[in-house]
Amino acid sequence: MSPTGCGVQVMVMLVSWRIDRILVALVAVAALGGATIDSFAQQEPKRPATQKPAKPAQKPQAGTAKPSAKSAKADAAARLEGLPPSQIGIATLAQYAFMIDPQTSTVLLFKDADKPMAPSSMAKMMTVYLLFEDLTSGKLKMDKRFPVSERAYAITRGTHSSTMFLEMTDNPTVGELLQGIIVDSGNDASVAVAEGMAGSEEAFAERMNKKAKELGLTGSVFKNASGWPAEGQMVTARDLALLAWHTINDFPELYKYYAQQTFTFNGKTQPNRNLELKRMPGVDGLKTGHTEEGGFGQTTSAVRNGRRLILVLNGLGSMGDRASETTRLLEWGFNSFTNTTIFKPGDTVAEAPVWLGAQDTVPLIVSRSIQVTAPAGQTPNPRVVAKFDGPLPAPIAKGTKVGIASVTLPDGRTIDYPLEAGADVARNGLIGRAVTLARHYLLGWLS
C-alpha cells in the first residue's frame, strides 16, 4: 500500500455495474510505459502581459577588476529584476527556459517555453536520436564507414563553427562520427551522418521532421542535421526537453555517449562542449548550442538520488551565463522539490468485486512506481481514484489490465496509470454459479 504519512486518498469508482447481463465489458487500458513523456504538454502556464526581452549583459572590458563574489551576486540579482518573469518557477537570465521532472511530468520552470527559437547545435539531438534508432534496429553498425563529401568538409572551413576536423580523404566509422557529433558538436560530422544515412541532408531533414511529429514535438521544424542557421528552422524549449527524455528513455544503452568528456580524432583531442559534465555532480548529458541569432543555449539532464531533471535554456548572452544559469537552476530544482513514492510496483491500490469467481474480490495493483513531486518539506496529499468496469467477470488472469488509477497531482493535473489484476481468479463451479445467480435475481426481485 502507500507509504506511511503520505496522506493518499484512495477512492474506488465502478465505471458501470452490469450484473443483469452477467458478462461485464472490461476497460481497455494501454500500457503506460512512457506515459510521463506524453504528459509534458498537460501543464499550460498562465501567461503575463507581453514584455520585451532585456538585452544580454555586456561582456566586461579588458583590464576590468574581477568583481567579488558578493558584488557578482548582487549584479546577477539586479540583472534578473530587469528581465521578463518566468510563467512558472524562478527568474532566469535565459530568454527561454523549461525544466521538468520527467518521472512525474511536473514542470518546475517555464519561461516562453512554447515560443519558437533558433535551435543551434541542440538540433543535433534529433540527428543523434535517428542515429541511435538505426543502431538499435541493426540497420547501422558502429564500424560502418561513411565518406566525407565536399559539403561536409566545407561547412566548417573558414568559420568558427564546431568541427571534428574531418578531411575529405577520411573514411570515418559511424562510431567516430557519433562521438564527433556529441562530444565535438561537429557540424562536419552531422552532415556526413545525414548524407550517409539518407543520401542527402535535405532527405535527412525530412526524416527529422517526420520523427519530430511521431515524438510529439509540435513546435519544431528541422532544415538540416547540424542546426546551422536556416530560414524556417525552429524548435521550442519544451520540445527539446521532450526529445531529451525520449533519447534517455528509448536508448538507455546508447545514451551513455552523452556523458563522454573527450574525443580524439585525427590527432586532435577535444573536450565535450557540455562543461557541466565536469562541474556538476549527476549531469550526464545532453547538448550545448550557440548562434548569433539564438544566443547561447543548453539542454541538460542530471540525476541525483535516483531523481532526474531535464533543463533547457536558450537566448543567453555568454558561455559564462549559460554555465552559471544551468548550475543555479538545476540546484534549485533538486533542492526546492522532492519526489514521494505513493505506490511501489506491486502495491494494491484497491480491491475489485468479482462476478462468478472462486473469490469475491481481486486486488488491483500497479506495475510501476507512482510518484508525486512537491515542494521540499511539504507532505503531498494526492487523490487517487481507482476506475474499472465492474464487477470483473471470472476467470481473471493475473497481470490483466482492468482499469486505471487516476492520480490528481498537487498542481491540479491528473495522470492515469494502468491497474492490473494482482492475482488469478478462477471461475466458480456450476453449483456456485447457480447459487450466485439465484441469489442475485431473488434479491433483485425482492428489492
Would you write up a description of this structure?
This protein is an alpha+beta fold and 447 residues long. The chain folds into 2 domains: 9-35 and 341-446, Peptidoglycan synthesis regulatory factor (PBP3), Domain 2, CATH 2.60.410.10; 84-336, Beta-lactamase (3-Layer(aba) Sandwich). It contains 11 helices and 16 strands. It has a 7-stranded mixed beta sheet, with no helix packed on it. A hairpin with a 2-residue loop joins strand 7 and strand 8. Helix 3 packs parallel to helix 8 (237-250).
Question: How is this structure best summarized?
Answer:
28% of the residues lie in helices and 23% in strands. It is α+β, with helices and mostly antiparallel strands and 447 residues long.
Helix amount, in percent? 25-40%
CATH architecture of the largest domain: 3-Layer(aba) Sandwich
User: Number of helical runs?
Assistant: 11
- State the end-to-end CA separation: 36 Å
Q: What is the gyration radius calculated from CA atoms?
A: 27 Å
| Largest sheet strand order | 1-13-15-16-11-10-14
Topology:
Elements (H helix, E strand, L loop, with lengths): L8 E6 L20 H4 L30 H13 L14 E6 L4 E6 L12 H14 L12 H5 L19 H9 L4 H12 L2 H15 L21 H14 L11 E4 L2 E4 L4 H4 L3 E9 L3 E10 L2 E10 L2 H18 E7 L4 E8 L5 E5 L4 E6 L7 E6 L3 E2 L7 E8 L5 E8 L8 H17 L1
Could you name the key traits of this structure?
447 residues, alpha+beta, Beta-lactamase, 7-stranded mixed beta sheet, 11 helices
